[in-house]
């Protein structure tokens, strides 16, 4: 008999310790401990939470921001690596699934960075590393394009879980590719962006995108968005005198949980820091699909044909040696030190 999981989800709205990787990882572990103690089985962190977003791309010209790009490269992490392993150990210790955004450095390219979401099971296993497919607007000055090799839904203790970063949640085909794999829980990670056009309500745009995905796919969406701390503003003000004014606009961050009817569950956070909790029953995803199941009976796959290229995008392919195994999967066993 089908009986889908019920669980408590936690969504974080906070700022990292800007470009301080070790301090931010320690902060992440503290938040994991707090959420697990309150009964959460899934915790979602914001986009590139380890350890910061390139706000200089929006308020400085490329030459002015170049020195900050170097700082970001030096604070970025490799996957697998000791920083993500520490977070995985915390996930295992507290028996909680974790989705977290990081700046990932290509191990074979010191200045090639990716906007990456890492999915970690409650056993401390790295299930996926999704690199943002298309950096948005000014972000192209910082991040390389990802590929679809990681555009996958993962089987977890809290159900089929998929993730997308920020503007990817506007990409209908990316979202459909996850829904078609049976996604029931979607994590959408964002950053606060006060420097959007003046008539653009960032908080409402985030909520609207989450509601669209939940309503169309009949899934739960957990939204986690960062905030901009006084420390971030102070750092940016070192290079730009108008940083405080440009980065202080309200209604720039939304964090919350959306049900399969497209409605917000409980009380979301707008701008303020904190953790949103919500009780989720995946059985609520069933009845709405009797009316509209866009990956099943309510579609015409004899008319529409979506193809997804999942081949990894590599700089070079050598033909004299066997293709190496994906480095993400090498030796990734459950971490040690788990506690019941």
Automatic annotation (TrEMBL):
Active-site residue list: 47
Gene3D superfamilies on file: Carbon-nitrogen hydrolase
Pfam family, one: CN_hydrolase
Signal peptide: none
Domain called CN hydrolase: residue spans: 7-282
Source domain of life: Bacteria
GO MF term list: nitrilase activity
Ranges annotated as spanning the membrane: none
PROSITE patterns associated with the record: CN_HYDROLASE (PS50263), NITRIL_CHT_1 (PS00920)
Region annotated Disordered, chain positions: 317-340
Family: Belongs to the carbon-nitrogen hydrolase superfamily. Nitrilase family.
Protein name, UniProt field: Aliphatic nitrilase
